[in-house]
Design a protein that fits this description.
about 725 residues; alpha/beta; TIM Barrel; Alpha-d-glucuronidase, C-terminal Domain; 3 domains; five-stranded mixed β-sheet; 15 strands; globular
Length: about 725
């Protein structure tokens, strides 16, 4: 028995030092005996108390309060205040709702984990480790002192939702972190501990909703047995404030209910949906509502019956209205013509503005095509004034190297949210268009297509966790900078944890080493995280090029792709239009006139090849190879320099990462190191493939000062990756 005890102790000691990424950014120290008080008890409040009792190291008692003061009511049920008492002897987290108290709890723990809290007067009988510097911050801002906390926060969006693309067979469309987290075959009898861990992680960053199944939905998700499974998840999520939503197949009345039609104006169809809604809400009283992909990419919808998107959405909205449910109706629609894909969402939805029920919100992808490394924002954001609209971002990296490539996406999302639509003059940013401040819509939301799977570290690439984190933080507060979010995530993910229960100090860093680590993390933030998205754009599709990926799975370059009988707008040549005269898609007034969908003065700026931002030039214009760029180089030379710059950046990422070896666990270090090698190799693949292919049209040499191609075009044109839409190639480009 003694031997077993020793072995168990040894196991836990060793496991505490090794890390596999499963803890995400919630790598809190344990073993504290913090003094936490709360006059009420509930599942949600009990979680808040437990989190603080286990992890709060500030040495000052914390009181949790739910009350209805005027100030707290103004912040809503999810907003909160965190304040230190006048005598500095207590911190109070207060909200008008229990969920706000929980969010405030995680905010306080985040300040602690990122070392933003100073404790100038730690109590002599404090539970904090007086020999540790864990109470000291690299940030000397006096406002972050424990005796001066004065924080007031509320979310910018009412609904902050993850969209899972998980299928009922366990696969995940565009999922690069294993199979689905939801083990449908085991539910509801078997409950994985990962379900609660998932809810906890989302609550810690303010995400309050989740769609658990693919937008390409199976009607079976609404069957009796699957609703019981969904109920089991909803029951687990509820204390964390996480509401469940479902993607639905518009033809469910026919496919599941046996009706001869799914026409939204048919009385039998309406009755079927009413009965189904009653069934759902009897099982899940706080069910959020439906997400609908309709009449897009072969999915059924109201247009199949001669009805409009508004008529289809409104029927469902009326069904859910008595239960306070909502409809999120996706605007991702397009027709297979050769000129209008980028315009289609606008053409179909702008005429419907003001015709939707007040519990319908139109969900719009950030760009007009499909989550490309860089797109202009969708003009639909500035077109619908009477209808609430919500951004849809893709957290999973379908077009950015899957889970092999490091690409921090906060800069991309900030680029979109901060873009000016000019719908009501200057300052009409997409953030203001969607958060209710410009048009005063009470229903506001923001969605992220998640990158979560059943991999141990949740997201595949350890740094892919940063995008899940960043989405939550921006959904809560879109004014946060990408730099702030990056710093938060890096510190929570890589700073060492000081366990009070451990007496060995061998693994603790000296103050000098700790300062060095802070400097290294700062360097990683500014030179790796913040530059990673732009590097991906450079080595994949610079200057506004887009959608030149390999057929089907979208991993790697294939600008030459030509599939007999396939849709034109699924072919790379449809987008790059390279010929002897130049390259790029003419969407100006001389071409498809997509620029006309934007408000003045933006439409005029985009329409002119000389004023169009160069990072979107080839998106809006077919440009001659010898067009003179702002750098003084020709377009061809600029393209070459961009691809080369992307390659050099990825190699620099490797150099930036190497010093982390002495600060973190070998497991995560080697994992990131391995993936950075893949990324650097893939970047060269992209550069060589694209430049050699486009050189056939430009007939110009690659500038002599740049790196020479190391591949042959014919070899790359014959290369195929044998993967599906549900997996990530383990080695990227290999021979």
């Amino acid at each position: 028995m003694r031997i077993i005890s020793i072995l168990l102790a040894l196991f836990f000691c060793l496991s505490s030092r090794a890390e596999d990424g499963s803890a995400l950014w919630l790598r809190y120290a344990t073993g504290t005996k913090a003094e936490i008080s709360c006059r009420k008890q509930s599942p949600t409040l009990n979680i808040a108390v437990s989190e603080l009792q286990k992890h709060w190291k500030g040495g000052i008692p914390v009181a949790l309060e739910v009350n209805a003061t005027k100030e707290l009511r103004a912040l809503g049920n999810e907003g909160y205040t965190i304040r230190t008492s006048a005598d500095g002897k207590q911190i109070t987290i207060a909200s008008s709702g229990e969920q706000g108290v929980l969010y405030g709890t995680y905010h306080l723990l985040r300040l602690q984990a990122t070392e933003q809290l100073l404790n100038p007067n730690p109590s002599s009988n404090s539970s904090s480790d007086s020999n540790s510097d864990s109470n000291l911050s690299s940030n000397s801002n006096p406002d972050s002192s424990l005796n001066a906390l004065n924080i007031s926060e509320k979310p910018d969006y009412r609904i902050r939702i993850l969209n899972h693309w998980d299928n009922l067979d366990g696969t995940i469309e565009r999922g690069y972190a294993g199979h689905s987290l939801w083990k449908w075959e085991e539910l509801p009898a078997v409950i994985s501990p990962r379900y609660e861990a998932y809810a906890r992680a989302n609550a810690s960053i303010g995400i309050n909703a989740t769609v658990v199944n693919n937008v390409n939905a199976s009607p079976r998700i609404l069957s009796d047995d699957y609703l019981q499974k969904v109920k089991a998840l909803a029951d687990i999520f509820r204390p964390y404030g996480l509401k469940v939503y479902l993607s639905i197949n518009f033809s469910s009345p026919a496919a599941l209910g046996g009706l001869p039609t799914s026409d939204p104006l048919n009385k039998e169809v309406i009755a079927w949906w009413k009965k189904k809604a009653k069934e759902i809400y009897s099982l899940i009283p706080d069910f959020g509502g439906f997400l609908v992909k309709a009449n897009s990419e072969g999915q059924p919808g109201p247009c199949d019956y001669g009805r409009t998107h508004a008529e289809g959405a409104n029927m469902l909205a009326d069904v859910l209205k008595p239960y306070h449910g909502i409809i999120m109706w996706r605007a991702f629609v397009y027709s297979p013509t050769d000129s209008v894909r980028a315009k289609q969402a606008y053409l179909e939805f702008e005429p419907l503005d003001g015709k939707f029920r007040d519990n319908v919100i139109v969900q719009i992808k950030n760009g007009p095509i499909d989550f490309q490394p860089r797109e202009p924002f969708s003009p639909l954001f500035g077109a619908m004034k009477k209808t609430p609209v919500m951004p849809e971002f893709q957290i999973t990296q379908e077009y950015l190297g899957f889970s092999n490539h490091l690409a921090f996406l906060a800069p991309m999302w900030k680029e979109c949210l901060d873009s000016d639509t000019y719908v009501q003059g200057a300052g009409s940013t997409i953030a203001r268009v969607t958060d209710g401040s410009l048009f005063s819509h009470p229903l506001t939301a923001i969605a992220g297509v998640t990158n979560i799977g059943d991999d141990v570290n949740w997201c595949g690439h350890p740094f892919a966790q940063a995008n899940w984190y960043a989405f939550g933080r921006l959904a809560w507060k879109h004014s946060l900078s990408s730099e702030e979010i990056g710093e938060e995530w890096l510190k929570q993910t890589f700073l060492p944890i000081f366990e009070q229960s451990r007496s060995d100090s061998a693994n603790e860093l000296s103050q000098k080493e700790r300062q060095q680590l802070h400097s290294q993390l700062s360097l990683l933030n500014s030179q790796l995280l913040q530059k990673s998205r732009e590097a991906v754009v450079d080595y994949m599709m610079p200057l506004g090029l887009h959608h030149i990926f390999a057929w089907g799975h979208h991993y790697g370059p294939e600008p030459w792709c030509d599939i007999p009988g396939a849709r034109l707008d699924w072919m790379p040549s449809y987008y790059h239009r390279a010929d002897k005269d130049g390259i790029g898609f003419d969407r100006s007034s001389k071409g498809s006139n997509a620029t006309a969908q934007y408000h003045s003065p933006l439409c005029e700026q985009l329409d002119d090849v000389n004023t169009c931002p160069e990072n979107l030039l080839l998106w809006f214009h077919h440009v001659p190879w010898n067009h003179r760029m702002k750098s003084g180089r020709t377009l061809w030379a600029e393209l070459c320099y961009a691809y080369d710059r992307g390659v050099q950046e990825t190699r620099n990422f490797q150099k930036l990462w190497e010093p982390m070896e002495k600060y973190i666990d070998p497991e995560r270090f080697r994992d990131v190191q391995h993936r950075l090698k893949i990324q650097a190799r893939d970047a060269v693949w992209w550069k060589d493939a694209c430049l050699l292919y486009f050189q056939q049209f430009s007939k110009q040499p690659i500038p002599y000062e740049l790196e020479r191609p190391v591949h042959e075009l014919k070899d790359m044109m014959e290369y195929r990756l044998n993967i599906t839409n549900f997996e990530c190639p383990p080695y990227g480009f290999t021979k």
